[in-house]
Amino acid sequence: MRQIKDWVSLLRIRQYTKNGFVLAPLFFSFSFLNRTLLTTSLYGFFLFSIAASAVYIFNDIFDKKEDAAHPVKCKRPIASGAIKTQIATIIAVLLTLLCLYLSFTLSELFGYMVAIYIFINLLYSVALKRIVILDLMIIAIGFVLRVYAGGFLINVLPSTWLTLMTFLISLILALGKRRDDVMMKNGTEEIIHSYSDGYNIEMLNYSIVAVAGVVIVCYIQYTLSPEIIKHFHNPYLYFNIIFVIAGFLRYFQALFVKKGLSNPSEMILRDRFLQVNIILWLCSFILFID
User: Fold this and answer.
1) What letters, b where the CB count within 10 A reaches 16 and e where it falls short, cover 154-175?
2) Burial class (CB in 10 A: 0-12, 13-18, 19+), 285
3) How far is CA 145 from CA 114, 141, 171, 215, 282, in A?
4) In the chain, count of helices (H) and strands (E)?
5) CATH number at residue 92
6) In this structure, are 120 and 251 located in the same domain?
7) Domain shared by 4 and 99, yes or no
8) Are 7 and 76 in contact (CB under 8 A)?
9) Which of 59, 95, 233, 285 would bridge with 54, disulfide CB 3.0–4.6 Å?
């Protein structure tokens, strides 16, 4: 049983929710009622998840020493020694080759998106994550690649609005990730990660709030834009901004009142309020369509 948990942890299956961005074009184009497109998109989600697992393993291999000194990440299979580095490397290479082969077989453009995602993340793991600010941009670009990969699968080019909001929301994910590292570093004398040295809590707090504000403004502009009103055949889509604002306020409450972890993806898995809020937001899109 312990070995199964180690492999689940190594593959980061809990992080597969992030690959839901692959399904964004399917949802916003309202093509999810098309069984063929839905099946294709879900297959793409699966392939991108394999690619993400390979990337996570490579990152854990490169970060083995630093993770061993981390109060939480020291429990990861490679850092703890539960899974040998050589075996993990073989698995990562096999997953990479498998997902690339299947991705290009499914769609050439989708395959290129997966290949670029793996390539920039390998660069990130080796060196780019140690360059302050650029590390955040790389993480955000990875999510944009997910959206475009999903769009290429169903022949729908993601809109400017979807691209912009994906980048901004994923930037908040990246800022939250760095904030967790800094908070843990401040609470211990041990070295956590060298690439968190260029950040402090104040900068990250201000950045998260600022980017969240930009997301809200962009979302309002998105719901009021003529092309979106024409696409959804309804001028009242802006009413669901209440769910977006409520979601951010809940996130800020967790950060500044409860002093909890900053990673939104982890919060979504644990926070019932956020889960219900997201479901209501998704349902509101369907209800507002004529």
Assistant:
1) bebebbebbebbbbbbbbbbbb
2) middle
3) 8, 6, 14, 19, 22
4) 14, 0
5) 1.10.357.140
6) no
7) yes
8) no
9) 95
> Distance (Å, rounded) from C-alpha 285 to C-alpha 61?
42
The distance of Cα 221 from the centroid of its chain, to the nearest Å, equals 23
| Whether residue 2 is found in the same domain as residue 144 | yes
What is the structure's pLDDT at 191?
A: 47
Record the tokens describing residue 12, joined without a space. Answer: 């980061």
146 and 197 co-located in one domain: no
Query: Do 115 and 204 belong together in one domain?
Result: no
Confidence label for 209 from pLDDT (cuts 50, 70 and 90): very high
Q: Give yes or no: residues 58 and 184 share one domain.
A: no
Can you give the length of the chain in residues?
Answer: 290
* Residue 194 near residue 66, CB atoms below 8 Å: yes
Tens digits of residue pLDDT in 210-252: 999 999 999 998 888 888 888 777 788 888 899 999 999 998 8
Find the domain containing 201 and state its range: 159-290
How far is Cα 117 from Cα 255, in angstroms, rounded to an integer? 30
Give residues with Cβ within 8 angstroms of 111, minimum separation 6.
Answer: 100, 103, 104, 105
Asked if residue 98 and residue 36 are part of one domain, the reply reads yes
**What whole-number distance in Å separates Cα of residue 209 and Cα of residue 2?**
40
The residues, any chain, with a CB within 8 Å of residue 38's CB and separated by 6 or more, are: 26, 31, 32
Does pTM surpass 0.85?
A: yes
Per the prediction, the chain carries an average pLDDT of 87
Residue that is written with structure tokens 């669901």 in the block: 240
Report pLDDT digits (tens) over 77-118.
888 888 899 999 999 999 999 999 999 999 999 999 999 999
43: amino acid identity, one letter: Y
**Domain boundary pick from 125, 158, 191:** 158
The identity of residue 257, as a single letter, is V
